[in-house]
Amino acid sequence: MSLKQKDKQYIWHPFDQMKGAEIIPIVKGEGAFVYDEDGKKYIDGFSSWWVNVHGHSHPYIAQKIADQAKELEHVAFGGFTHPQAVKLSERLVNLLPHNIEKLFFSDNGSTANEVALKMAIQYWFNQGEKRNTFLSLEGDYHGDTFGSMSLTARGGFNEPFERFMFDVNFIEPPTEENGAEVLAKVENYLKTGTVAAFIFEPIVQGAGGMLMHSPAILSKVIGLCQQYGVLTIADEVFTGFGRTGKLFASDYFEHKPDIMCLSKGLTGGFLPLGITAVADKVYQAFYSDDAKNTFLHGHSYTGNPISCAAANASLDLFEQENTMQNVAHITEKLAAFVAQIKRNKNVRTARGFGAIAAVEIETQGESSYFNNAGKEAYNFLLSKGVILRPLGNVLVIVPPYCISDEALEQVFESVLEYFEGTKS
Ligand SMILES: Cc1ncc(COP(=O)(O)O)c(C=O)c1O
């Protein structure tokens, strides 16, 4: 039996409707490329769900992981620590906005947000205040655990679970046009004294279709929340580690969030790891002689040393390989491509920010995750050796930062060919 057949027999894949799913077995990765079991080469144009930073199987990170596995593979993080976590924390605290002072570890993006949410609730609880509402942005996605799912915009993703989710007030992502209105609406919520925290995907809302909003106005919303003492949480799971052109999207803001959630690119795309990074005032609300004020949350693999070693190796590469210069170069190339493809009549709209581009296919019906138009494009691009997993009818280009000009051109040409040739 081939890998594909055995996979079909035993495995249930995430996000894919298994009826009719075409699963591709990948057996090797190198740089911006992955190879299937028949030896076919693909450009990984979506960085394997937006996690890959320096390229697949980068030998430096692979070596550091191997070294760490031989030294210390895991130790419980409750009551113990280890050199890789300490080193990573010191480095990140120096790279994150100046107000961020402490890191809490978990294992993925959803749990990084889940931790932030629980911290926000208990932050108020420990101070004797009952705050039970949240603000989030329309179109936001924060993950698939129950808390993160509740903070996510309502729709097909979470519909079956709706009556089990808590209430969240969704506000429009701020733009130059609606800025005043959004700020007024936020202030009305803040005045009620019931809001525990405002969580947001900063600048680019990934899973919602790579929607982009104004950094300047979002910063004002953060500042307003802070005036009312309400916690602000930047979900940088997707935007962190260079994706928006700065190391963190929050680096664009004048007002810095109190909590930042990191995952995906944190380990260079090698291993699962989540971090919820907090300002001292959050930490202090839990620092107490009363055991009840403890943050009673953790996971068996919290702060895993091999994952931390991968994260440290990834940070080394940011320094050694001038990674942010590559991001700047990709940003320019994507911006030029967006301007070009926007003119195609089969394109509804296109947009870019940092090393992210999104191209909406003109189709019947609204742009959404459940719009099937992207499937045909996905299959066409696969036949050309390009992987761009669409979000409904939105084609997304989120390449690893190591991608060569040649490979990026091949992605552009294949997308253009799809819009110019195949589609009428
Ligand atoms: C902004 C954002 N938050 C959270 C998540 C969830 O992360 P994970 O898939 O690691 O649970 C994602 C995943 O795409 C994301 O884009």
Gist?
This protein is an alpha/beta fold and 424 residues long. It has helices spanning 3-10, 47-50, 59-71, 83-95, 109-125, 146-150, 179-191, 215-227, 280-284, 305-320, 323-341, 373-383, 405-422, and strands at 26-30, 33-36, 41-44, 100-106, 133-137, 168-171, 195-200, 204-205, 211-212, 231-235, 259-262, 274-279, 347-353, 356-361, 386-387, 394-397.
Specify the number of helices: 13
- State the name of the first-level CATH class of the largest domain: Alpha Beta
- What is the CATH homologous superfamily assignment of the largest domain? Type I PLP-dependent aspartate aminotransferase-like (Major domain)
**Secondary-structure class:** alpha/beta
Q: Main beta sheet, described?
A: 7 strands, mixed
Written as H for each helix and E for each strand, in order along the chain, the element string is HEEEHHHEHEHEHEEEHEEEHHHEEHEEH
Total number of strands: 16
CATH architecture label name of the largest domain:
3-Layer(aba) Sandwich
Strand order of the largest sheet: 4-12-11-10-7-5-6
Share in helix: 25-40%
Give the end-to-end Cα distance, rounded to a whole number of Å. 40 Å
Structural Rg: 21 Å
Shape: globular
Bound molecules: pyridoxal-5'-phosphate
